[in-house]
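Lab channel / #folding
Pinned by the channel admin:
"Please post every new chain as: sequence first, then the structure tokens as a reply. Keep commentary short and put observations after the output so the thread stays searchable."

First post following the new format, from NK:
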Amino acid sequence: MNPEVLAIIEQLSREKGIDRAVLIDALKMAILTAAQKSFPGEINIEAEFDEETGEIQILVEKTVANQVIEPNCEISLKDASKLTPDARLGETVWVPQTLENYGRIAAQLAKQVIMQKVREAEIETVFTEFQDKRGDLVNGIVQRFERGDIFVDLGKVEGLLPRREQVFRETFNRGERIRAYVLEIRKSTKNAYVILSRTHVGLIRRLFELEVPEIGEGMVEIMGIVREPNGRTKIAVKTNDRDIDAVGACVGMRGMRVQSIVQELRGEKIDIVEYSDDAETFVRNALSPAKISRILIDHKEQSMSIIVPDDQMSLAIGKKGQNVKLAAKLVKWKLDIQGESEARALLEKESPLKLKSPEEKMTSAIEKDEQLDDSLIQVLLDNEIKCFDDIVSQGEEGLVSIDEIEEEQASQLVDLAQSYLSGNYSQPIIANDSVNEVTEESEDESSEIETADEETSESDEQTDDEENTDSDQTEKSADDLEYSVDELELIDPVIVQKLKDSGFQTLAELSVTPEGELLEIDGIDEATAKSILSQARQHTDSLENAS
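Reply from TO:
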């Protein structure tokens, strides 16, 4: 060993980012492993490294004896005295060994040990470094494609963008720059790699934090993000500084800030709405730019029935119900959209939510209760009991003291009042079977709206071509693009099964798959691959044009 060893250690430490002490330990371990191969049996061996000179020594523990029978573990008193002047018989001394005596095989073994230790240290260093980047954005270069997954060169480590974390119809070419969200970091015995995502809402949050300084400084706060990748995103923001407009800060002058984010997301639409603690105001903001006529709220069911002008139905619902679905997720309420013409009859019905005064609420509830006589209303009013609060304050004893009220009636009145005041008494606000159901109807033939009600099946009998087209579209769900690979025509069923075994379940997945990836599947030649891709792309293009 010589000073060249120190130079090599320093160079490796700089290039690989590995601590110098780790490299020295790896070198000592390698030499020690090689030395142990030369000494059979259980013999104590140690390695020492001089960090100043770069010299390394192998020391073997031997016992001092008058007559040496086992040279590997014994040493004469004369030789021991040269190493340790006060050595005595029966004691042990550490005897240095000559490295050149170990031969070529020991040298190769030492090399393998050093390489393994360096590799392990490199993996651990990269893993530790990227642990701190979880939840952040990273930039990389597209390296290769395997079975729909994209491998990305991130510099010291390789990134993996799985098919499930890719945005539908978003394609990349080899050598293209890509920005993604770090989901997690994994390591194996061979390497460390980073799991990336282009669909996670964290990607939107980080992009806004980068583009909008006010968010990073805490003056504007992101309150919620909901997303349908490559479709639409809604983000709710609020300001912590009265002099700053939260929405305006995110949009930027002439929309420059939000446009840069839209470009990064390859055209994905982004709605920025102002957050409000008031649920009704928040819903109005979330459904904008649609105009809302009225909102009926059921706090018990955490639901809202939203009445909009008939000409605003398509705007409020959005394409394939996307707008109202994202709004419901953002505000965390169940939303039911209805047009004014449809809801007019419902609004005319009497409901406790429409009554103005506490007296009207009390009288209406008593009239609707089949177990109570309507004559009790006048009795209560004559005795200055004009609301449910008065009934509860009187209690059963106070009500029974009134001549016209019997004990059973008093108990029923108190139960009714307590039920109403606690919120357990409610009348149905809407006639739909579920407030979850989003009704998507409009009288405008030019609007492209889907409906969740079965009434749309009647339009199938109409002869008008345009209405028939709309009816066909309404029978499709928001997952139109998820057609099975079984839809492929003139393709051998064996090939279709191999596609499924390779992870292709839908035509949508096939439409964004490179031809070279299909050719790697056994049994698929160039003509078959082109036919498969052509059918898949024609199918998805026809759906886009229809929508």
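NK: The chain has 21 helices and 15 strands.
TO: also worth noting, The first strand starts at residue 45 and ends at 49.
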